[in-house]
Design brief:
This protein is of the alpha/beta class and 468 residues long. The chain folds into three domains: 233 residues, Ribonuclease Z/Hydroxyacylglutathione hydrolase-like (Metallo-beta-lactamase, Chain A, 4-Layer Sandwich), CATH 3.60.15; 108 residues, Rhodanese-like domain (Oxidized Rhodanese, domain 1, 3-Layer(aba) Sandwich), CATH 3.40.250.10; 105 residues, 3-Layer(aba) Sandwich (Oxidized Rhodanese, domain 1). Helices cover 29% and strands 21% of the residues. Strands 1-2-3-4-5-6 form a six-stranded mixed β-sheet, covered by helices on one side. Helix 3 packs across helix 5 and helix 7 packs across helix 11. The chain is globular and about 70 Å long. The relative contact order is 0.09.
Amino acid sequence: MNIEQIYTGCLAQGAYYIESNGEIAIIDPLREVAPYIKKAAEANGNIKYIFETHFHADFVSGHVTLAEKTGATIVYGPTAKTNYKSHIATDGEVFKVGNITITAMHTPGHTMESTSYLLKDENGKNHAVFSGDTLFLGDVGRPDLAQKGTLTQDDLAGFLYDSLRTKIMTLEDDVIVYPAHGAGSACGKNLSKETVGSIGDQKKTNYALRADMTKAEFVKEVTDGLAPPPAYFPLNVKLNKEGYESIDEVIKKGAIALSAEDFEKVSNSTDAIILDVRHQFDFVKGFIPQSIFIGLGGAFAPWVGALIKDVTQPILLITPLGEEKTAITRLSRVGFDNVLGYLEGGFDTWQKSGKEIDTLRSVSANDLEGAIKNKAKVFDARKPGEYANEHIIDVPNTPLDFLNDHISEFPKKEDFYIHCAGGYRSVIAASILKSRGYHNVIDVAGGYGAIKKTTINRTVNVCPSTLK
């Protein structure tokens, strides 16, 4: 038996490859399926099943394409309905993979079709549970994404309480927990940075698994402090339910090299967003006017999903050389399939053509210190939990996720400064503001990490209990 966790950091997502005696199961695959097929070929194995823990909201799964390419059976839990061929498992149904078995355990709560998969080894012993978004390390799945009709988030939280206590917590303490996500995912509030744990450890450390916790207490704690889900979540659910275009076709359509002249023509004749995915240091030095920065080096796909509201939005790309297909692939992971092309030769091509460029003012934390003494306006683009834990005195929190809600707070004429934790998110925010005419925005390089090394007055641990 071989179990491999295939973890994708920018999505904080874990897919799983399970092989026994030449038969293979894949759990929650990413949209680009070539790596799974390659692994199976190297093992001289056959992909028999593709198990989906639920209809994912934060990424487009590779189940449909992988089934088409391999003939494997897609398996969902009870109540799931799809527009493509799939097997809807019954609660307790057993699937044989080589010398092991995988049992579907219906665990509704995060969504109604949510299902965990219990793996029993060659001796029939409970070995591991693939818990999807039902149980994370340190947290549980948010219960507000699948509200429908009269079904409320409190109802879903109640189902989740029952699922955890009747299905998950009854497993032996040494059973390994393989969750669908880790820290950084928007599918929970307090996920651990660890990506593999055990039932016993979670009973000891996970607030939601306290033995003396009542259902009412669970519902209150799990639903407290939930930030609104990113706008792209329902669109990804729709793609995962109904199917989607092959990623091969998406890359083929998007990987069109455009000269500076053609790039400009396409930009002027469409409503395409110019998305610059280079490093923030390069973007600050020069970029195409009106372009938006979201760098490949950070949590690229989730930020695209959070800030570009419509997955059908046409996109033109500025990429580092050789990273064009990578950018298109990572966009497709969150359902953004409408790339119209990329600037051949990168930003250097634009500069050499003599076309107009823009720059972003960026200063050091030491420069910010002087500006604050002169009563400069400063804004903090970090998440509310980061801000609550520590921030510059008298500086308001305008989280990047909800920048649109704070637009009226930014001054239109006088210079103002914006910072995040390390400099990535503040450049994203500044690029969006510049594209909307706020040419008076100034980025703080190095973010709060650099600010802490100055004598700028800060609050520390003001309200650590609110940190999510």
